[in-house]
User: What shape does this take?
Amino acid sequence: RTGAATHHGTVTGLDRLSPTTVALTIEIPDRAELSFLPGQYVNIAIPGTSEERSYSFSNGPDDEALTFLVKLTPGGVMSSWLTDRARVGDDISFTGPHGSFFLRESDSPLLLLAGGTGLAPILSILRALDAAGSTRPMHLVYGATTDDDVVELETIVRLAASLPNLRWDYCVADPDTRAPNQGYVTSL
Assistant: This one.
């Protein structure tokens, strides 16, 4: 593994998935030298500041582009950069990969619980299982605070169509939700 190596790259995507979430895409020239386990994260240096923030990969380990889900927080350093200054083509750097939350080799059933942008490492895990043609039994429960926080449902639908043993559902805590399930992941 690459340990805490520093990687330099370019912002190639800034996609507003919802009023509260941005998908950040980064491409790096040394992609072949960056290996990570699905579920791991990196520390991204926020351009123009001395700050960094941690984000889990949402892409699979073999995908060329690196993607991250970022929850926009009013006044947040990363949020302010993303909404006010970030542009496709910007230089960006990060260190990593880090973390011991990652997919283990097994045929055992998987229960995957994700909340909000915490869906990112779960998407990375599902993409890796899909790429491997896994038939492992999997159940994903995805929860969000509000309807605005629900993202990547189309991606989950695509993965579920490709992974024969993936069952999934989602819920939203806000009582005014339009989602099929109101409440918390524990209720599902």
Remarks:
- The chain has a mean pLDDT of 96.
- The first strand starts at residue 6 and ends at 18.
- The helical segments are 77-85, 119-131, 153-162.
- Residues 119-131 form the longest helix (13 residues).
